[in-house]
Specification:
This protein has no helices and 22 strands. By secondary structure, it is mainly β. It has a 22-stranded mixed β-sheet, with no helix packed on it. The chain starts with 7 loop residues before the first strand and ends with a strand.
């Protein structure tokens, strides 16, 4: 459309038969209202989205191939736009399956989060009372303590988030932001042995990644590197243990719309090329 959103995505087989036909609808502000996922001439599933006056997502309905509701999600916010609760419902009767409730100190500074099952039983609680570096984290059944603190240098704002993983081991996430406009630049995740687990670098937006990688025992496992022409992504490479495994290249028309996908393996051998028909308004 006029905002660059894809409204129709079509793929064909080598014999010219339609394989994929996905359709998307948006409101005047570019927010997604409906998505339909078509395969071999039939709609397999669709999603319908509803927003409040502040453009916050308040409802998402997932429909199956017969147009019947399979999943129903609800979001509720306070006057400041902070999320108060999230509900997952399922089936025609919209039976409650899970619910999360959040409380805050001031503004959107979260105090606690609690997860409930469909019967109202507490499944897990997250506490955000820990505010400074060095406070001791004590694993408790059905309760997770979270520590957060900040530091400032002449160039960066550093935010640290420390909690437990699903196995009760301490995980520390260190995020770096630009000091001028507090936009994201880098994020690293460490285990309790101070070994690097994940590394992510972006250009002042999570939507513009430059590099992302995963590590084990401090050694790199896989890595993705992204290249741009201005604000437009033109390629990315996938590496495994330091060796490039594949490269994706993207070509665009004069209007900036994607028209060609190229996927090459190691040594530059072409593995797949997709000339995709994209319909724009």
């Amino acid at each position: 459309d006029s905002k660059g959103n894809i409204i129709n995505y079509v793929e064909f087989s080598k014999k010219g038969k339609e394989k994929v036909n996905d359709k998307f609808e948006y409101n005047t502000n570019g927010k997604l209202l409906k998505s339909e996922w078509g395969r071999h001439g039939k709609t397999r599933r669709s999603h319908v989205y509803t927003y409040d006056l502040n453009e916050h997502l308040v409802r998402r309905e997932d429909l199956n191939s017969k147009g019947k509701t399979s999943v129903f999600n609800l979001w509720n916010y306070n006057e400041g736009g902070c999320l108060l609760s999230f509900e997952m419902r399922k089936g025609k009767q919209q039976k409650l399956r899970r619910k999360w409730v959040h409380t805050y100190y001031n503004g959107c500074d979260r105090k606690s989060s609690t997860a409930y099952n469909g019967s109202g039983k507490v499944l897990q609680t997250w506490s955000y009372d820990c505010k400074s570096e060095g406070e001791k984290l004590n694993p408790k059944k059905n309760e997770t303590q979270i520590c957060r603190w900040e530091s400032v240098s002449q160039e960066y704002l550093i935010k640290v988030y420390q909690t437990f993983d699903e196995n009760g081991r301490i995980i520390r996430t260190v995020s770096k932001y630009s000091i001028q406009d507090t936009l994201p630049l880098e994020q690293k995740e460490y285990n309790e042995k101070d070994e690097l687990l994940r590394h992510f670098v972006c250009d002042k937006s999570y939507d513009k990644p430059l590099m992302s990688g995963s590590y084990r025992h401090g050694k790199e496992m896989y890595r993705y590197d992204y290249q741009y022409d201005g604000e437009t992504m033109i390629s990315w490479t996938h590496s495994w243990h330091g060796k490039i495994r594949s490269t994706i290249k993207l070509d665009y028309n004069r209007q900036g719309n994607l028209v060609l996908h190229k996927w090459t393996k190691r040594k530059g051998k072409l593995r797949w090329m997709g000339l995709v028909e994209l319909a724009y308004q």
